[in-house]
Design a protein that fits this description.
With about 350 residues, the chain is an alpha+beta fold. It has one domain (about 5-50, about 65-345): Phosphatase 2c, domain 1 (4-Layer Sandwich), CATH 3.60.40.10. Helix content is about 25%, strand content about 30%. The protein is built from 8 helices and 15 strands. The chain has helices spanning about 75-90, 95, 100-120, 200-210, 275, 280-295, 300-310, 335-345; strands at about 5-20, 20-35, 40-45, 65-75, 160, 160-170, 170-175, 180-185, 190, 215, 220, 230, 255-260, 265-270, 325-330. Helix 6 (about 280-295) crosses helix 7 and helix 6 (about 280-295) crosses helix 8 (about 335-345).
Length: about 350
């Protein structure tokens, strides 16, 4: 477990955005960690291309919304840079102007990671936090002497998850790299829009081993708890392999979901694992929905949810001790928050919640 402080920092960095289609609230809290390494970004009206003069947070309602959360580890360099630049990198892809948002997100994330690797080459990050194990000696980070590998100088272990959404019309596109999550409330039932990338997954394990790495204690090379991430360039040194084939890959898994805005879909919750390690997908959706039904504002719900997840003391297993970031994307669909309140007041249909997260 990463370094903790004697008492949690409960100051919350909370923001809200709104247009005719969405009301978005986001909040971050340092908690028990020695520093805050999360970052988030929101632009409700991205232009159709980088050449479009429209402001990314203008009042027009027919463009593309972008919301993203980045859970950093080993420092803030990667998470902060990604939060500031990923949306423009996605918009700069030819596929974005062509309307192929799946490819625009996939290539945009990979291009951003390559840009950061070139920009921060040799950057020596602070010691790793929870995503990296302090119990592992530094020499265990050494990779095999693979042909085509770059020499390991300053150990670039800093990295970040990435969970980014694009909403255009009645479609939501979710690009995920790591173990942050996005979960949709479909009339009160949780539907996961992303799948966690862990080293123990068969497909992830196969790539790790093929690239010369290994999995021990459920961690990449016994150290990193994620199998995909931005940054973590110590695991991306093999120049004979494509970016998608490295021990740790920055290739996002991009999904597309058709929204039922006029029928059942109410909101999306995006968060880092500081939330999802403590509560299940359905518990989070039910928590948010019940409070929306009671008339609470999304920003207050974000803050209450983090305090609900915060451990009252230094929990030995680390649950509730991580940095926390949560975003609630409310679907207004031209209506008001009061309309959403009425929709959330309706009883959930019979049946189990949809949850693809294992």
């Amino acid at each position: 477990m990463g370094q903790l402080i004697s008492g949690p920092v409960t100051f919350k960095d909370t923001k809200m955005w709104q247009n005719s289609q969405f009301m978005v609230a986001a909040s971050s809290m340092q908690g028990w960690r020695v520093r805050m390494e999360d970052a988030y970004a929101c632009f409700l009206n991205l232009p159709s291309s980088l050449n479009d003069p429209a402001s990314p947070n203008s009042s027009q309602s027919n463009s593309t919304a972008y919301i993203a959360v980045f859970d950093g580890h080993g420092g803030t360099k990667i998470s902060e840079y990604a939060a500031s630049n990923l949306h423009t990198k996605i918009m700069s892809q030819p596929a974005y102007a062509q309307g192929d948002l799946v490819e625009a997100m996939r290539s945009g994330v990979l291009k951003l990671d390559a840009e950061m690797q070139a920009k921060f080459s040799g950057y020596s990050s602070p010691q790793p936090t929870q995503k990296c194990s302090f119990a592992i000696p530094s020499d265990s980070l050494e990779l095999p002497d693979l042909e085509g590998s770059k020499p390991l100088s300053s150990v670039d272990v800093g990295g970040s998850t990435c969970i980014a959404l694009l909403l255009r019309g009645n479609l939501v596109y979710c690009a995920n790299c790591g173990d942050s999550r996005a979960v949709l409330s479909r009339q009160g039932l949780a539907e996961a829009l992303s799948v966690d990338h862990k080293p123990t997954m068969v497909s992830e394990w196969s790539r790790i081993v093929a690239a010369g790495g290994w999995v021990a204690a459920n961690r990449v090379n016994g150290n990193l708890a994620l199998s995909r991430a931005l940054g973590d360039f110590v695991y991306k040194r093999n120049t004979s392999l494509a970016a998608e084939e490295q021990i740790v890959s920055a290739e996002p898994e991009v999904t597309q979901c058709e929204l039922r805005l006029a029928e059942t879909d109410e909101f999306i919750v995006i968060g880092c694992d500081g939330i999802w390690d403590v509560m299940t997908n359905q518990e989070v959706i039910s928590y948010v929905r019940s409070r929306l039904a009671n008339g609470k504002s999304p920003d207050n719900i974000c803050e209450e949810l983090m305090m609900h997840c915060l451990a009252p003391n230094c929990n030995p297993n680390g649950l509730g001790c991580d940095n926390m970031t949560v975003v609630i994307v409310c679907f207004l669909n031209g209506g008001t928050l009061e309309d959403l309140k009425e929709r959330c007041s309706k009883q959930c249909p019979a049946g189990d919640a949809i949850d693809v997260i294992s």
